[in-house]
Design a protein that fits this description.
heterodimer, A: mainly alpha, rod-shaped, B: mainly alpha
């Protein structure tokens, strides 16, 4: 009789312990799986924020530099416009001198004087030719600067758009 | 303890008069119990390891970020210094261009000045042409400098961010 009782008790305790051990094993497995998921999420989250911070830092630096380039182009363009006006002013002055010389030439009857005036007129015309060439070159330069400024501004806006996209 | 119990399960205990089959069953049960317990310990140890590893990975990510940001900062500062230098060169170029234009204007005025002898006036168109060339050279230099400034992206060694 005794062996049966001992056997039954041992089997009962054994079954209980086995069940307990099995469920703690299952719990541990669940915990392991959850920890793995959490760790993965954590790493992904940190990596995402690191990438975001890195991208933003890069873009802000890029924007600052592009702004500086655009500012330099703008200053050069402003200067080019001033220079263009200056050449126009010189051309206007020489035109006045030219009209004056034509008038003087017309007024005089002295042939020698007429010849001198004509020589001076020719010299002014030659210098005006040079000034017109300069003016034309300046016009081309101003147009190119305008295009560059437009491009630089567009690029700066593009960088700003990228920043906004990341910040959203 | 596990080994001793396994041995016990394999031993016939005549004093208790317990059948060998029952003892084997008990032994297997206890064996499984300890197997489960061992597995639980192992899994808990692995769980701890995963946590520690993830902490190390996150620390590495942070360290890498700090390194990249620092490197970008250095590269950016160098590039900005270069842009500043070119900007200064551009300003100097503007000054010399301004001087050349003033020279052209004064040559042009000399042409309409009655006190300037004709022999000098004759050289003026050539002088204007020469100054004009110098001015154009300065202007193309300015454009080249602006090109250099626009190369910011390829010059700088900004890393990461993709």
């Amino acid at each position: 009789m005794l062996p049966f009782i001992v056997g039954a008790v041992v089997i009962g305790v054994g079954a209980y312990l086995l069940d307990d051990a099995s469920s703690s094993n299952k719990r541990a497995r669940r915990k392991y799986s959850n920890t793995c998921d959490e760790a993965e999420e954590w790493i992904e989250h940190e990596a995402y924020h690191a990438r975001r911070k890195d991208s933003l830092d890069k873009l802000f630096k890029m924007k600052k530099a592009k702004r500086k380039v655009a500012d330099a182009i703008y200053t050069t363009l402003k200067q080019a416009n001033r220079e263009f006006k200056q050449v126009n002013h010189t051309l206007k002055d020489s035109k006045e001198s030219l009209s004056e010389l034509f008038m003087k030439k017309k007024m005089t009857n002295n042939r020698a004087e007429k010849r001198v005036f004509q020589e001076e007129i020719n010299l002014i015309l030659a210098s005006r030719k040079e000034l017109f060439a300069l003016k034309e070159q300046m016009r081309g330069n101003t147009l190119e600067l305008k295009e560059r400024l437009k491009l630089a501004n567009t690029q700066t806006h593009q960088v700003q758009d990228e920043i906004n996209q990341i910040l959203e | 303890m596990f080994n001793s119990l396994t041995t016990l399960s394999k031993t016939n205990l005549p004093s208790l008069n317990v059948p060998t089959a029952s003892l084997n069953f008990i032994g297997q049960t206890v064996g499984r119990y300890f197997e489960y317990k061992n597995n639980t310990k192992l899994i808990e140890h692995e769980t701890k390891k995963v946590k520690e590893q993830s902490k190390i990975i996150v620390k590495n990510i942070e360290a890498e970020l700090v390194r990249v940001l620092d490197e970008n900062d250095k590269s950016f500062k160098q590039e900005m210094a270069r842009l500043k230098m070119i900007g200064q060169e551009l300003k100097n170029g503007e000054k010399s261009k301004g001087k050349l234009l003033k020279q052209i204007a004064s040559y042009s005025k000399m042409l309409s000045d009655p006190n300037v002898p004709l022999s000098i006036k004759e050289t003026i168109p050539t002088l204007i042409a020469q100054t004009n060339e110098l001015f154009q050279a300065e202007q193309s230099q300015a454009l080249k400098k602006l090109n250099l400034m626009s190369n910011f992206e390829s010059n700088t060694k900004l890393i990461g961010g993709e």
